[in-house]
Structure formats: C-alpha cells, structure tokens
C-alpha cells in the first residue's frame, strides 16, 4: 500500500505580540492590581532571572539572565502584605516593559495571558559569529508547528495516523497560541490555559510516551511500545514532527511548563525535565511513522456531502465524484468512484443543489480522502438557505461541471 505525502501547508500560529504590536515603542505594562507577586516571581525564575538578595519575606531583587544582567534589577514584592508592595510591583512591571531583554517580554506575555509554555531547543553547529542559517531556524519553527498540530489532533481522537481527519478543528485550536522569535536554537510557544490546556497536557504525555517507546525498542528490538503509546497521543504526525526537529542537528529537547497562575494539571509532573531526542532515534521514529501509516484501518462511514466535482472519461460508465463533506466524517473532502447509475444520481443532485448521502469505507491511503466500496447514493433534502448556498457554489464552479458532464 502506498500513501501520498501528508506534509500539507500548516496554518501559522499567531506571532509573538512583541513582533506585531510591540515594535517601535515600549509595550504598556499590565495593571499591577491584577498581578499576583508570587506568579511574577515564578515567571522570572522560569525565564532565567536570578534572585540576588532583598529583604527576606518582603521583596526580592532580581537581575536578568545573560551577560550584563547585573546592571539592571527589579524589586519584586513577595506578597501584598506591606504598604509599598503595589508601588514596587508597578515599578517592576514598568521596568520589564521597557527592557530590551527577550526574557522580559516573555514574562509579560505570560502575565497578560496565563499560558502553559512549550519550549523547543535544537543543537546545531553555529555559523559565522555564532549565527544560525535561515533553513535551520525555519526547520525549528516548522517542526514546532507540526508538533502542536499533532497534539491538537490527539485531543480529538487517538489514532496512529490522522491524515485529513479532524484537521480543520485541530488547526483552529492553534489560533490563540502565541509564538516567540527563534533565537539561540530555542523557540517558545505560549498556549493559553483557557481553551488550550488539553493540547499542552496531551503533548506533555505524548512526548514521554514516545521517548519510552524508543527506549523500549532499542532495548528489546520490539515496536510494541508504539502501539500502547497511541493512547497517550503518539501518532504518525508526531513522529514526523520529531524527525523534522532532530534531523540535521546534534540533538533536540522539548519541555512543557505549566502556567503558575493555573497550577499543575491532574496527572502531570510539576517540574518535569525536558524530553530529549537524538539523531540515533531517527531510524526508530521513521519506522514507527511508517508502521502507523500501514496499520491504521479503514473506517466505515455514512457521509452526507455536496457534490463539487464530477469527472469521467466518456459519456457512459463509471465516474469520479468529489464531495465536500457536510456530515459523517471529520474530513473536508472525499473522492468517490461511482458506477453509472450512482454517478447520474450525483450529477442530478448537483444540478438542483442537493447534497447526497453515501456509505462506504474511508481509506487511510491518501490521508482518509477516498471512499471505497461506495453504495446507497441518494439525494438529501435540505432547507432553502442551504440549498441556495449550494446552488451558488454550483454557479461558481460551473466550468468543472460542464466539462465533467460533457456528452452525458
């Protein structure tokens, strides 16, 4: 069995706010009244700021990471128990908003939108003056996008191979994810807790399951670990994302860190170490991905869809129909080969603006885009508004229909 490539263009996750609204002038600091000092302290620590003294129990003095950090400091209250706490907090937030440090801006993003943070690192040979090549950074972003999409797919269904199934809803789940600029081989995505936490939890669990399955294969030679890993969210799509991340590097790591304001989700470690993958894992990941493709079964379905394309080689005989799926399967379109009578029914339904209902098996070959064994093709009555919309689509695609039905 052969499979068409599944690497389709992915919808971009939203850029980091720094890249869109913060260029040219300092960002407005958040309102101190809505900020928990303990959360601010936890975020500063997470993003590499160092606490260097301060009045115990009252406030801490924090300096930014990297060289030259000792010249700047923030006084962050530990609580609101003292009269000057709000003033110190406001001054710290203002200083963060005026700082040129990427870590300062990431702290402000996490304060503005409580988010679980997902980080990717890859170790690549540095170019001249420590710069990374364009393709290396682009591959890091591409791998991160694919990994997030694989996690979003796994929140909708457990499958070794998703193909086109659930792809629209999974891509929509990434709409509110914020992503920072790739720098020094590192990329951070901010997944809002409101609506996005299931994605972060699934990715967290899937990465550890993939690591365990690889280790099991290397120890025993068996691929059984990848069968059970599907329940944790491992899939062909995830293994492909990992291959993209690791290929051409000396190793890669992924970490999921929970939003301090929301706490640790049930069943997850509070401070797990990053999950590491190396070039030595690539062969196992590729084998697992190919295995998922081969073994994902066809799915029996009854689909309702609008006929958007008809084609056959002559005026008689079998023909191919393309349906835009309205119900019955979580894919946008399917292709079906129909016998002469069923093809004629589909053509007439298309002319009068009616969808059709058909039964068959949604095949994994081609990404669950083809229905085989099709039977029971019948037109379906719809309300006037839906019928008008389908008729409009007919006129917009009339050239397809005229060419398909020529001589019929």
Topology, pairings included?
Blueprint (H helix, E strand, L loop, with lengths): L13 E2 L1 H4 L16 H10 L3 E2 L7 E5 L10 E4 L7 H14 L3 H11 L2 E8 L11 H23 L10 H6 L5 E2 L6 E7 H28 L3 H6 L6 H11 L5 E6 L17 E3 L4 H14 L3 E13 L7 E9 L5 E6 L1 H12 L4 E8 L6 E10 L4 H13 L1 H7 L4
Parallel strand pairs: 1-6, 12-14
Antiparallel strand pairs: 2-3, 3-4, 5-7, 5-8, 6-7, 8-9, 10-11, 10-13, 11-12, 13-14
Helix pairs in contact: 2-4, 5-7, 5-9, 9-10
Helix content: 25-40%
| Content-based structural category | alpha+beta
Could you say how many structural domains there are in total?
3
Shape: elongated
Low-confidence stretches: 1-11, 15-26, 398-408
Could you explain the architecture of this structure?
There is one protein chain. With 408 residues, the protein is of the alpha+beta class. It has three domains: 17-112, no CATH class; 115-295, no CATH class; 299-404, OB fold (Dihydrolipoamide Acetyltransferase, E2P). It has 13 helices and 14 strands. The strands form three sheets. Strands 1-6-7-5-8-9 form a six-stranded mixed beta sheet, sandwiched between helices. Strands 10-11-12-14-13 form a five-stranded mixed beta barrel. The chain is elongated, with a radius of gyration of 26 Å. Mean pLDDT is 83; it is low at 1-11, 15-26 and 398-408. Residues 1-11 have a biased composition (Basic and acidic residues). Residues 1-38, 52-71 are annotated as: Disordered.
